[in-house]
Amino acid sequence: MAFSAPKRRALDLPIRPTRVEISEGALRRNFARATEAAGPAQVLAVVKANAYGHGAVQVARVLEDAGATLFGVALVEEGVELRHAGVKSPILVMGGSYDGGYGLMVEHRLTATLFRREHVEGLAQAARAAGVAATAHLKLDTGMSRLGVSPDELGELLGLLRAARGAVELEGFMSHFANADLEDDPLTPRQVARFREGLRQVRDAGFNPRYRHLANSAGLLGLPGLADGLDINLVRPGLMLYGLTPDAWLDGRQPLEPVLTWKTGVIHLKTVPKGTAVSYGGIWTAPRDTVVATLPVGYADGYSRDFSSKGEVLLRGRRAPIVGRVTMDMCMADVTDLPGTRVGDEVVLLGGQGAEQLRAEALGAIANTLHYEVLCRIGARVPRLLVP
Ligand SMILES: *Cc1c(COP(=O)(O)O)cnc(C)c1O
Questions:
Q1: Is 238 in the pocket of ligand 1 (CB under 6 A)?
Q2: What's the pLDDT tens digit per position in 92-138?
Q3: Is-catalytic flag, 48?
Q4: Structure pTM?
Q5: Fewer beta carbons within 10 angstroms: which end of the chain, N or C?
């Protein structure tokens, strides 16, 4: 199956002032921090979900240039997108395997994650049809209960992999932490023990997987020394590359810098008299004569409707409250206390302006969700621009 190289998306044209800026310098420095924290282990840079909203293609290109040698995505589709963009490094498809994906994984040299009989068979079949050996990582469920073969079925899968030798090369053995973001959670050491036991079984079956890994950002930051370079020689940070930690107790373990700044601009200004309702449903009424700024960003861009009358933006280096409902394409801010505001002024939705900062953690708290989701939700119609 061939795809033609995509044209520049019209949605990437930065015409509307709403955009995401990605700091190349911050991204490079965070990657260096991850590499340092990994010690003797290698780093697989997780760029799934459009690199947590940062723009997978730009992020992967920068990281590849910064020395990243392995990438992780959730979907075959995401891996194919990176190949189309010219990313050459190995890409692990962590979210599992599906019918219809094996041929594409082989064609684009994507590394499969296997944990079911049909994964091994499907991949082997596609590899034989193409006359190549496909690479794969075997995933063990050590306590997350999401993906992975259960320990009691590992032996059977290893038997299948032995039969598929020549078509499927077992390059890695992996698992995934469920609670590494919780301080001193007893499941974490149990998962490590199950992982080591599984690895022993893999080796006893005659396999010597080049990569052994189970740590996300929380595992990398919270368990220094875990990746000993022997049994565990690869780590898979996502969030920390983007300059955030999974939970506050992990802050300060490495000096990380947020990479993303989400900006828009004032496109309309008006003074409304006291008592005027603003936006759909009239949930907010001006308590005084109020200067209202209209911003061209809404929930279709991932700016949550939960920010209605609760969010804040930065303007002229100060905070301004969102008033009334966030609509699909627009929202309004009260700028009465920011005299001198003009149409065209830059507005920061997430990130820093002057001495003020709006962090993804704080936005998540308002919207009853995680910083991870705040980032991932930034929509497809917001252009991502690389800045120094
Ligand atoms: C998302 C993901 C990661 C990265 O998690 P972070 O918490 O962002 O570091 C690592 N491994 C797997 C399998 C994942 O799905």
A1: yes
A2: 999 988 899 999 999 999 999 999 999 999 999 999 999 999 999 99
A3: yes
A4: 0.96
A5: C
